[in-house]
Structure formats: C-alpha cells, structure tokens
Design a protein that fits this description.
EMC3; membrane; about 250 residues; mainly alpha; transmembrane; EMC3/TMCO1; flat; two-stranded antiparallel ribbon
Length: about 250
C-alpha cells in the first residue's frame, strides 16, 4: 500500500470549501424551492372522498393482523362491494380513459411543479461540477478508510492520470460525489426530514393519487391486495403452544 503525503493546504482550500459550498447550495435550493412552489389548492369533497377510500383500503392491508378474523372478513366484504362500484369515484365517466395532460389542470400543474423541482436540482449541481472540474482538477484530496475494488477507480479518481494508485485515494470530483450522496443526514438535521435540499420535491406530497393516475385502477389494485391478505396473529392457538411447551 502506497503512502502519500498530502499538502495540508488542500484540506483548507479544496476539501473544506467544497464541503461548505455544497451545504450552502443545498440550503439555498431548499428555500428557493419553497418560494417557487405554488400554493396547494384545497380538494373538493368528491376528490377527497375518492382519495380517502383508497387510503382506507391501504390501511386495512397494513393493519389486517390487528383485527379479529370476523372483523377482517366484514371489512373485506365492504371493500369488495365499494371498490368494484363507481360509488366513490369523482368522475365515473372518465374512469379507465387516458389522461390528457393538456386539458387536465391538476396533471399539468403537477408536471410544472415537478419540472421546477428537477431544475432546482440540475442547475446547481451542473454549476458546482463545472466549478470543481475547472478549479480543482487533478487533486488527490483524501484517503478513504475502507478498501474499494478496481471498478471504482474511474469514479473516485476521475481527473487523476495514474494507473497504479490505490483506489482508496480519491480526487476532488469524487469528494463532490461523496458529499452529494452523504449530506442527506446533514440536510435532515438542519432542515428536517421533509426537505428539498437532497432530492427534488414531490409536488403531490400528501396526496394518494399522483397526477395522471387512474383512480379506478388504483381501487382495483387495492382490492386485489385485500383479497390475498393472509390473516396471521401471534395469539392464534397460543393455549395449545403454551401447554405443549411446558408439558415437554
């Protein structure tokens, strides 16, 4: 294993500046995303009713084992009737038809909001990568504390024209990628778990139906999942298991 003596100036003028600037860019991106985000519209009663029945079906799947078998069968029969019918659909006439994004206001709004979020991710990262490539190309910054295979050499030693340098030594552009994927916990600590600094913001967060999804297909999908629920409980035949264990 080769030992390299790195100039301490690299830590002060390359490693730390890249780290600090990426944190500041993430904070700026988070705040700009909040400013550019459109005010969410209040859902009408029919839309809310349509989404809540799907949410109730999903909750049944997740909590089926907390119910008694008879109670579970009653709920399965209820959802079998409700989800097959069009009773809870907002617009039964459009069920199963492809969504026209040019005429559907909610779908078009979702696309615009998604483009805003993606642009807030792409533009800053492109600027940072260009800045690092122009000013810090060819620098070996640090040695990773864990071994890597040779397949990572082209990624972590990008811009360093050597063939015999161990993969643990990484370049400046590699330090950028490490920060890009490793700063999520820092952003969560500073901004909370629901932040737009580490990933594009979802314009439909909190909604059951995303823009362009067919509610009828989602209802039938939930119904299929409910039909295959296998009720299991830790208390099933617990008496016989206890007697069998202690009699032995």
């Amino acid at each position: 294993m080769q030992d390299l003596l790195l100039d301490p100036v690299l830590r002060t003028w390359v490693l730390i500046p890249i780290f600090v600037i990426m944190i500041l860019i993430g904070l700026l991106r988070h705040n700009l995303t909040i400013l550019l985000r459109s005010k969410p519209k209040a859902l009408d009663a029919k839309t809310l009713r349509e989404q809540r029945i799907i949410l109730r079906a999903a909750n049944l799947r997740g909590n089926a084992n907390n119910l008694l078998p008879d109670a579970l069968e009653q709920r399965k029969a209820f959802f079998n009737n409700v989800l097959r019918s069009d009773e809870y659909l907002k617009d039964p006439a459009s069920a199963g038809k492809p969504v026209n994004f040019l005429t559907d206001e909610s779908a078009l709004e979702g696309i615009v909001e998604s483009m805003k979020g993606n642009m807030m991710m792409i533009v800053p990262q492109t600027i940072i990568m260009t800045w690092i490539s122009e000013f810090f190309a060819g620098f070996i910054l640090l040695k990773l504390p864990f071994p890597l295979t040779i397949r990572f050499k082209s990624i972590f030693q990008s811009g360093v024209a050597t063939t015999d340098l161990p993969v643990q030594w990484v370049s400046s552009i590699s330090w950028y990628f490490i920060n890009l994927f490793g700063l999520k916990s820092v952003y969560s600590l500073l901004l909370g778990s629901d932040n737009a600094a580490s990933e594009p913001a979802n314009p439909a967060v909190g909604q059951i139906l995303q823009p362009g999804q067919d509610p009828k297909k989602m209802m039938l999908s939930e119904l299929e999942s409910i039909h295959i629920i296998d009720h299991k409980c830790l208390l099933d035949s617990v008496e016989s298991r206890i007697l069998e264990r202690y009699n032995a």
